[in-house]
Amino acid sequence: MKVFLWFVDGLGLGPDDPRVNPLAAGSYPALERLLAGRPVAFAGWRPSPEGPGAAAAVDAALGVPGLPQSATGQTALLTGRNAPAVLGRHVNGYPTPTLVRLLQSGNLFTHAVRAGLRATFLNAFGPGYLQLLARYKEEHGWPSTAEQGAVLAAARDLPVEQVPARLRRRRFRPSVSTVAVDAAGLPLRGPADLERGLAVPHDITGEFFGGWASLTVEEAAEAALRVWDDHDLTFFEFFMTDLAGHSQDRARAEELLARLDRFAGLLLGAMDPRRHLLVLVSDHGNVERLDQRTHTDNPVPFAAWGAGAGDLVAGAAAITDVTPRLLALLGVDSPGDGGDAVPPRRATRGA
Question: 75 and 176 in contact (C-beta within 8 Å)?
Fold first, then answer.
């Protein structure tokens, strides 16, 4: 079985109200197919009426007061552990040292790799990000595999792309997904992979990231399918929906959702449901409520289409169910907390 895990940031199952929810207003046939019906609020789980798919509405708050946030939500998704409860709060943005340790002690990718599966991160990273990551890993004493080192070294002399102002940070910190993949010894994909048709930009087409990457949705889907077919577990991250939700930009949200739907439709149309599994998950709601700038406490989708879809999502209740269920489907036993801990890395300030 070959799993494509598609993480869409800030995609909640919101009200069936087209005035505030663009998902209730437009036509998104591929997303509707994935979600076994219209991509709006529903309870529990439901099988697809037209094929090998199923969807569950799962909790992202995890019993912790306050609105779900990205750092703790994504850590919970990729580790199966209640990260907000560990910290006693929801944390936005980038992982704290405690969350980093959770990710390094065991996550979806470390378990898969240690079981001998081929796993990869599909996203294409620009040379600027790779240069900053190389410096960060050196400063924090994070080891690199030969493959990781080769990608980072290749980016060293490349011109840095123009980073959008809203994504600039004074102090670089790697994302949850980057930490998780790095802990598994897997390299990030860079400009060379993009040129070979073996990576996809974070926004699918690439125009948001200063023009260093430029693909059509069709080209992006072809690249995704090529990588997917060569790996047991392929991970793709899309965070533009969260940005659109925060900006309350209705036109931008509808444009991005149409792009997601087109991409999903191409994947669904080309995959073999007997041996491929497409999984869609999110960390918290946002874009489904454009009448507010903040995240929401709405449930989020855990949807699947293809081999084992029904067994994967049936009965799932929270985002912490995603990783254990995926590992079980892939035939991987995930050890208990700390069972596969990596050597401790130098601690930094904060929680």
Answer: yes
**Bridge partners (DSSP) listed for residue 235:** 5, 121
Contacts of 208 by beta carbon, 8 Å cutoff, 6+ apart: 164, 201, 202, 240
Q: How far apart are CA 51 and CA 74, in angstroms?
A: 29
The helix/strand/coil state of 174 is coil
What number of helices (H) and strands (E) belong to the chain? 15, 7
105-125 pLDDT tens trace: 999 999 999 999 999 999 999
DSSP line for 208-275: GGTTS----HHHHHHHHHHHHTT-SEEEEEE-HHHHHHHHT-HHHHHHHHHHHHHHHHHHHHHS-TTT
Q: Which CATH architecture has domain 2-329?
A: 3-Layer(aba) Sandwich (3.40)
The contacts of residue 184 (CB under 8 Å, 6+ apart) are: 107, 109, 110, 112, 113, 119
Q: E-strand spans in the chain?
A: 2-8, 45-47, 53-58, 119-121, 233-238, 276-281, 300-306
- CA–CA gap between residue 327 and residue 246 (Å, rounded): 33
Count of beta carbons in the 10 Å neighbourhood of residue 254: 18
| Cα 105 to Cα 101: distance, rounded to the nearest angstrom | 6
Entry pTM: 0.92
* Domain residue ranges in the chain: 2-329
Rg of the chain on CA atoms, in Å: 19
The phi, psi pair for 281, rounded to 5°, reads -140, 165
Residue type (1 letter), 334: S
Give every residue of the chain whose pLDDT is below 50, as ranges.
337-350
Specify whether the CB–CB gap between 110 and 347 falls below 8 A.
no
Mapped onto helix, strand or coil, the DSSP state of residue 5 is: strand
Strand pairing report for 45-47 and 2-8 = unpaired
